[in-house]
Design a protein that fits this description.
Blueprint (H helix, E strand, L loop, with lengths): L1 H41 L2 E5 L11 E5 L2 E8 L27 H6 L2 E8 L3 E9 L2 E6 L6 E8 L13 E8 L7 E2 L10 E4 L6 E5 L3 E5 L7 E3 L9 E2 L15 E2 L3 E4 L5 E11 L6 E11 L8 H6 L3 E4 L1 E8 L5 E7 L15 E7 L2 E7 L4 E8 L5 E7 L8 E7 L7 E6 L3 E5 L4 E6 L2 E6 L2
Antiparallel strand pairs: 1-30, 2-3, 3-4, 4-5, 6-7, 7-8, 8-9, 10-11, 11-12, 12-13, 14-15, 16-17, 17-18, 18-19, 20-21, 21-22, 22-23, 24-25, 25-26, 26-27, 28-29, 29-30
Length: 446
């Protein structure tokens, strides 16, 4: 009898100990999770609600200057649905208007939108035109703005090259977006990305199909800069800019990277499968060619320029170019040979930071495999700030990340910014800004 009682008591104690141990483990896990959440959220300072009334919701390409905010936002139309009790099929939502069931109509109603305002007073639309894709440029004083729009009519049959029937326009404002002027531009020619010097008068348009135009009078007149025949070799499966992508049968070549420095020098990089260059270089294969073109370069000088690139990167692609204060250039590169144009799927290649000066590579840092590089920024104290994404092998979704180097690219500190609808590095204050849901946050870089 005593033996049975002791056995029963032992079983009860053993059960209690087991549950106590599980409770301790759970509390530790909750504490760790709470600390992780605290760490993630505590590094951000909430600033304000933003664009909560601009529908449909979404982020864009953001700029911040003091308390002023500007957002470039290619976006589709707002779609509304009937109350559930009005649905014919209780499992299928019904839109309020018939066109919302037509994918072509939805695509045709996409717009290029630009919003501007104050963090305390809210922001409003200052520009909106039809377009699935577009690009913009903003002067340092926020007075001169160029916007290009690209609109495809999905109700019309495809053109002979498989690109559909597209209309393009070029717009300009010199008073911060209060008034707009449509500049002369052929409506069937894509203008691409505007790139200007600080005066807003001298600049370029860089477009798909390896095309460059130059202006010295604020966009009233443009001069085409011809490229060599062998430049049009890297074909892109998705040849669009921002926003909605027309699905096309064929492909067009694009520049891998381009940038304009303060003195007006245009730097461009593009990948070639094969090209015969000047005698010292000879034939190059599977390489990226980097060029620098001063604004004063004459058209008749270009053939010789194209034969002698500043640099040849064997079996690499360039993602971004920024002029360095020491006279060199900061580069973000993807290492390894580019896969054939007809190959399907995304190619994962290791990214690297490269410093190039006086005709040679002076330093290279290779990032971890999960780093998907985006745009490179230069801080006031020569910090290198790289916006990117993290692609972990066990996750479908990518997180936004920021990598910062304060020693010339030799070491990089990585921070996971989580989800971000829009992201911006403000050089003047050394801050990272993040827009998520309807909220604007910031954090100071150390």
């Amino acid at each position: 009898m005593v033996k049975s009682g002791l056995l029963l008591l032992w079983r009860v104690l053993r059960t209690l100990l087991k549950w106590l141990l599980l409770a301790i483990v759970a509390l530790v896990g909750i504490g760790a999770s709470a600390y992780g959440l605290y760490k993630a959220f505590s590094m951000w300072t909430y600033e304000t609600e933003l664009m909560e009334h601009d529908k449909p919701y979404g982020g864009g390409d953001m700029r911040i200057r003091g308390r002023q905010v500007m957002v470039f936002k290619p976006i589709g139309p707002e779609q509304k649905f009937k109350p559930m009790e009005e649905w014919k099929n209780p499992e299928v939502a019904e839109p309020t208007e018939p066109w919302m069931n037509d994918i072509d109509e939805i695509s045709n109603r996409a717009t290029i939108r630009l919003l501007r305002g104050d963090m305390g007073k809210g922001i409003r639309r200052i520009f909106e035109k039809p377009g699935q894709n577009g690009a913009w440029w903003l002067s340092p004083d926020w007075q001169t703005i160029y916007v290009t729009t690209d609109w495809s009519n999905y109700k019309l049959p495809m053109g002979p090259d498989g690109y559909g029937q597209r209309w393009h326009a070029l717009w300009k404002s010199v008073d911060g977006g209060q008034h707009w002027q449509q500049l002369p531009w052929p409506e069937r020619t894509q203008p691409g990305q505007p790139l200007f010097m600080a005066d807003g008068q001298r600049g370029y348009l860089v477009a798909d199909g390896m095309r460059i135009w130059r202006t010295s009078d604020g966009g009233l007149h443009w001069q085409a800069l011809p490229l060599p025949a062998w430049a049009n070799q890297r074909l892109m499966m998705n040849p669009d800019g921002n926003g909605f992508s027309p699905w096309v049968k064929n492909t067009r070549a694009r520049f891998d990277a381009f940038d304009v420095s303060e003195d007006g020098t245009l730097r461009v990089a593009f990948y070639v499968r094969k090209a015969r260059l000047a005698a010292k270089l000879g034939e190059v294969t599977e390489s990226t060619l980097l060029y620098s073109l001063p604004f004063t370069t004459k058209v008749e000088e270009l053939p010789a320029k194209w034969m002698q690139p500043d640099a040849v990167f064997k079996q690499q692609s360039l993602m971004d170019i920024k002029a360095a204060k020491d006279g060199g250039v900061h580069l973000i590169a993807l290492q390894g040979q580019l896969q054939p144009d007809q190959a399907n799927g995304e190619q994962q290649r290791l990214a690297a930071y490269v410093h190039w000066q006086q005709g040679k590579e002076t330093f290279r840092h290779v990032f971890a495999p999960h780093v998907i590089p985006g745009a490179l920024f230069i801080g006031r104290q020569d910090q290198l700030v790289l916006a990117g994404e993290s692609q972990q092998p066990d996750r479908v979704m990518r997180d936004s990340i920021t990598l910062v180097s304060s020693d010339g690219g030799r070491s990089w500190d990585e921070t996971n910014d989580g989800s971000a609808y829009a992201w911006y590095y403000e050089t003047e204050t050394n801050r990272i800004w993040k827009y998520e849901y309807h909220s604007l946050y910031w954090r100071k870089l150390e």
